[in-house]
């Protein structure tokens, strides 16, 4: 079993506005940079092999944490297709995003975008490499990637609430078997030291 720790990038201006980013390459906001500057990784993971999504928001987060990650394109955010740059509330108000569509769980897909199941399809070979390689690994990625990983580890179908809420500003620990199967170790490990 190989240790894997994953965290979401710091906040961007689009996160604050509740705008769908997907593949759009937004940098961290000034507030996001300030927030990441308060984060501290658990000391036991500092010697891990680190990778990051090549999107600026993930890459910048990794650098602010003092990491020198390798780029891992399979960790990019879920593509939202035609909905990238749009607000969820505006999509709901227009009727484009319906309750029936949201209940599709792993098979939910924005027009021209990816589904969470598609994200899992790109994560599975990466997880198999992590598991077979045996090197403890850290990753800086995106919310959609972490949700897809969590669903693989727990069997959550993304319909209804998950057993654990994936909290921002936290890291999530998994173990990866040699065949790439992930399992949960600890969710929501705080990155800010308690005072």
Key structural traits:
six-stranded mixed sheet; Rossmann fold; alpha/beta; 7 helices; 32% helix; 195 residues
Largest sheet: 6 strands, mixed
Mean of the pLDDT scores? 95
What would you report as the Rg, rounded to the nearest angstrom? 16 Å
**Which residue ranges are poorly predicted, with pLDDT under 50 across at least 5 consecutive positions?**
none
CATH superfamily caption: Phosphoglycerate mutase-like
Query: How much helix is in the residues?
Result: 25-40%
Distance between the termini: 34 Å
Q: For the record, what CATH class applies? A: Alpha Beta
H and E order? EHHEHEHHHEHEE
Number of strands: 6
Beta-strand content? 15-25%
CATH topology category name: Rossmann fold
Q: Which architecture per CATH?
A: 3-Layer(aba) Sandwich
3D structure, described in words:
There is one protein chain. The protein is an alpha/beta fold and 195 residues long. It has a single domain (2-190), classed as 3-Layer(aba) Sandwich (Rossmann fold). It has helices at 13-17, 30-36, 56-64, 88-94, 99-102, 116-133, 143-154, and strands at 2-8, 49-52, 70-71, 137-141, 170-176, 182-190. The protein is globular, with a radius of gyration of 16 Å. The mean pLDDT is 95.
Lay out the secondary structure.
Layout: E1 2-8, H1 13-17, H2 30-36, E2 49-52, H3 56-64, E3 70-71, H4 88-94, H5 99-102, H6 116-133, E4 137-141, H7 143-154, E5 170-176, E6 182-190
Parallel strand pairs: 1-4, 2-3, 2-4
Antiparallel strand pairs: 1-5, 5-6
Helix pairs in contact: 6-7
């Amino acid at each position: 079993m190989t240790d894997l720790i994953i965290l979401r990038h710091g906040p961007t201006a689009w996160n604050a506005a509740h705008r769908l980013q997907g593949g759009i390459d937004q940098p961290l906001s000034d507030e996001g940079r300030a927030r990441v500057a308060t984060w501290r990784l658990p000391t036991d993971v500092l010697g891990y092999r680190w990778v990051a999504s090549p999107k600026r928001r993930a890459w910048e987060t990794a650098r602010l944490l003092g990491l020198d990650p390798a780029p891992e394109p399979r960790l990019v955010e879920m593509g939202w297709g035609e909905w990238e740059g749009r607000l969820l509330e505006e999509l709901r108000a227009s009727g484009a995003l319906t309750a029936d569509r949201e209940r599709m769980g792993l098979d939910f897909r924005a027009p021209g975008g990816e589904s969470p199941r598609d994200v899992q399809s790109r994560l599975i070979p990466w997880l198999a490499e992590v598991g077979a390689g045996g090197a403890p690994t850290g990753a800086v990625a995106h919310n959609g990637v972490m949700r897809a990983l969590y669903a693989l580890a727990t069997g959550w179908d993304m319909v209804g609430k998950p057993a654990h809420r994936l909290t921002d500003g936290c890291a999530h620990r998994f173990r990866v078997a040699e065949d790439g199967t992930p399992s949960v170790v600890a969710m929501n490990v705080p990155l800010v030291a308690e005072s």
